[in-house]
Amino acid sequence: MADRNVANLMGRGESLLFLTDDQLRRGIEAMFFAYRGFTADPDRILQDYGYGRAHHRAIHFINRTPGTTVSNLLSILGVTKQSLNRVLRTLVEDGLVDNRVGTRDKRERHLFLTPKGATLERELSEAQRNRMRDAYRAAGPEAVAGFRTVLEQMMNLEMRRHYMDDGESVK
Amino acid sequence: MADRNVANLMGRGESLLFLTDDQLRRGIEAMFFAYRGFTADPDRILQDYGYGRAHHRAIHFINRTPGTTVSNLLSILGVTKQSLNRVLRTLVEDGLVDNRVGTRDKRERHLFLTPKGATLERELSEAQRNRMRDAYRAAGPEAVAGFRTVLEQMMNLEMRRHYMDDGESVK
DNA sequence: CTTGGAAAGTCAACAAGGCTGACATAAACT
DNA sequence: AGTTTATGTCAGCCTTGTTGACTTTCCAAG
């Protein structure tokens, strides 16, 4: 049928949006290039420290939720404990992450950034924030609001599929 | 000092947007989760064929620009020829990609999807388009327009840096 | 108090997909 | 004729993901 490659989005009020496969394809490509640009600066910084993206992710989420446990991190990152542990071990050895035995439950390890770890985190996130600010500034405030809305929808769809159990991860 | 972590974006007309580091951080996280969700469906499909994301990217861009050369693909994907060749070789061997010697310049190889390759491409891109449509539908048309604007800005910023002779182009 | 299972850690082996370096071949350009 | 360009290939290394098979610690239920 002629309508097979057209997505019809009814607008609230009077607006009406047609999304052809080609328009969606451009969005898909934009995601690819945008994400690459988005990780380019941190990747470059991490290289100087001998780390990779996996280290960045761990550092990011430990910073966001200080005292989080290993299993928490595992469910957020969606990798195996062997994979995460390899990364975490080097970060602890290098004095970027502190690993405290839980008080309530002594099996758990609560993770914190050391001052040294916090410094790297700031360096990494600042690069990403700058990159994002540049794009925001060029796009304008209204576009930014829409961007965040769509991204949050994509995120929610993803979270719903993967974390049916945990409510503690991302607000 | 209180303004150091606040980005002030002047709106056209009356709107005014303040972006705190925390708000930017949420955007950064949303990118991470959104991109993961974005690649989840294709990754699952590719696994059945014994392929990975690298194969997907090659298939995508060959489909977008049929007859593109290897060096073209190299500059778009930003990987080494050894890395790309490994992927391309398996795709040609498996009969998904056709590799034709150039007529004008016989050194060049022009890449095309075979019908079999086109079938996989459709399966992959359809999954991604569906995912994107879901998010678009939930967010609404106005948000979609903004989303695309910001993403295109991020993409342009990246393309500009990428094709600037690959130095220490960050400022 | 015993025991089942959860949380964390470790070892080993493997794969995908990046990378560098070296080298080969054919075609085009000068 | 000699150089450059486009492509391909071999070999080896790294990061980061995987599975499987344990062990240790320790909470909590029977």
Structural notes for this entry:
Two copies of one chain form a homodimer. Chain A has a domain at 27-139: Winged helix-like DNA-binding domain superfamily/Winged helix DNA-binding domain (Arc Repressor Mutant, subunit A, Orthogonal Bundle). The model of chain A is unreliable at 1-16 and 164-171 (pLDDT under 50). The first copy, chain A, has a three-stranded antiparallel sheet with strand order 3-5-4. A two-stranded antiparallel sheet of chain A has the order 1-2. The first copy, chain A, has six helices and five strands; from the N terminus they run E-E-H-H-E-H-H-E-E-H-H. In chain A, strand 1 and strand 2 form a beta hairpin. In chain A, helix 1 (21-49) runs antiparallel to helix 5 and helix 2 crosses helix 5. Chain A has 171 residues and is of the alpha+beta class. Chain A is globular, with a radius of gyration of 20 Å. At the A-B interface, strand 2, helix 1, helix 2, helix 5 and helix 6 of A face strand 2, helix 1, helix 2, helix 5 and helix 6 of B. Chain A binds a DNA duplex (30 and 30 nucleotides) through helix 4.
